[in-house]
Amino acid sequence: MNDLALGREGTPHLASGSMTMQGRFFVVTCFGLVFLNCLTFLYHLTGSTVFNVLSNSTSLLLILWSAHHVMITNEKNYFYNALLTLACIFTGTSYLVNFGSFELSDGLKLVSIYSFYVAGRGMSERMQLPEKRCIYMLAALPLIFRVVGQTHVYTSIEYPDVFSYFPNTNTAALYFSALFFALSPWFGNRVLVAQFINAAIMNRVGPALATIVSIGLWSFFPLRLQVFVVLILLACASIAAHAFGALDRLLTGLNAIALIWSLDPSTVARMTTKQLIDLTGTTDMSAFFRITHWTNIWQIYSSLGPSGILFGYGASQTGVLTVLPLPPHNDYLRVLAEYGLLNFLVFVVFVFSIVFSLKDRAAKTMYTVLLIYFLSENLIDNFTSMTLFFSYAGRFTSPKWRARDQPNA
């Protein structure tokens, strides 16, 4: 689990007096995530597996903490409780069907996002200053690591784009997106400015594209004069970006995808990097490998029998079964192929029901970044990011939060 593991502005109304059990869920969760990331910091700084074991244990304790709050919540939301129950049943069945070819820790990560959401929805206490300080600390830790250390874990050729103690800048961009999502009640639309800076610093197409699409999607409704002004400005900005070459990587990737679409994945696996560069005319292979890998995953999954279609071929088995030893880089496809059709249907209903329940525009936009980003990365592995996204999504969609605990304008 060591992979890590638009609204109103104002100051939240802080709860007074001593905190009850219901008032501690978010504070303890945030402190736990800080402790987890400190252990991850030390693991990557020293390479000692002791810190890795401790960080995995902390993750498990946080999952148990969320499960405890699922049990004691006073909010009887039958819809999300049913989704959590179904996710547990279908993931457990997938484990039994694929016994011996199922990474249990990965299955636990998947189920935990439902657990954190239900717990956060049921324990939607008012936001407290210690939470804010913890989130600031979570933002500081990877930045401090870049100054004082160098990872002793991500050292092989598989990790050419390491950022701090994250395996790549895509993962790092998601991490900071989760922090901005949690902070959205404090800072409102300013988190969207921070997200643009985040995407620019990471210099990755995925985060930037997801941010642009998300802001555009939730800014267009309801239609008004300002929307059309923004559309004109975006069109001008796109033309200027194309003229200065800022879209070259995206266009080259699309051309490469069109060129190799008909190639068999096994053929791709036998080609050298030089042959691929000569074929596509680009040294950027990320989009190319994703398309061929997704095709291979679909070929394997669609050829399974009825039990395989329903319950997948086992968590974390994609890199073992496919010709390219890589994880799926698409969490929708990953849930479908590794956990099966039933888990996929529950997952899609779950994550998309949340986005339509969020009322705060900044939070809705940041959460939509996650939904789009699911299309091109392995994000469920990122424990801290998923915990923040789904526990705070539970809080932000709770009727109690909307009616009583929302920050004052």
Write a structural description:
- By secondary structure, the protein is mostly helical.
- It is built from 20 helices and no strands.
- The chain has one domain (21-398).
- The chain is globular and about 60 Å long.
- The model is unreliable at 4-22 (pLDDT under 50).
- The chain crosses the membrane at residues 25-43, 49-67, 79-101, 135-153, 173-193, 205-221, 227-247, 298-316, 336-358, 370-392.
- Keywords: Membrane, Transmembrane, Transmembrane helix.
Q: What is the secondary structure topology, with strand pairs?
A:
Layout (H helix, E strand, L loop, with lengths): L24 H22 L2 H24 L5 H20 L6 H19 L6 H20 L20 H19 L2 H13 L2 H15 L5 H19 L4 H13 L4 H6 L2 H8 L5 H17 L3 H6 L6 H4 L9 H9 L1 H17 L3 H13 L9 H15 L1 H7 L4
Helix pairs in contact: 1-2, 1-5, 1-19, 2-4, 3-4, 3-17, 4-19, 5-6, 6-7, 6-18, 6-19, 7-8, 8-18, 10-13, 13-16, 16-17, 17-18
| Strand residue percentage | under 5%
- Please mark out the parts with pLDDT under 50 across 5 or more consecutive residues, or reply none: 4-22
- Based on secondary structure, the structural category is mainly alpha
The string of secondary-structure elements, in order, is HHHHHHHHHHHHHHHHHHHH
Mean pLDDT over the residues: 82
What's the end-to-end separation, in Å?
Answer: 38 Å
* Sheet of most strands: none
Features:
transmembrane, 409 residues, transmembrane helix, mainly alpha, globular, 20 helices, membrane
Describe this structure in a few short sentences.
Keywords: Membrane, Transmembrane, Transmembrane helix. Helices cover 70% and strands 0% of the residues.
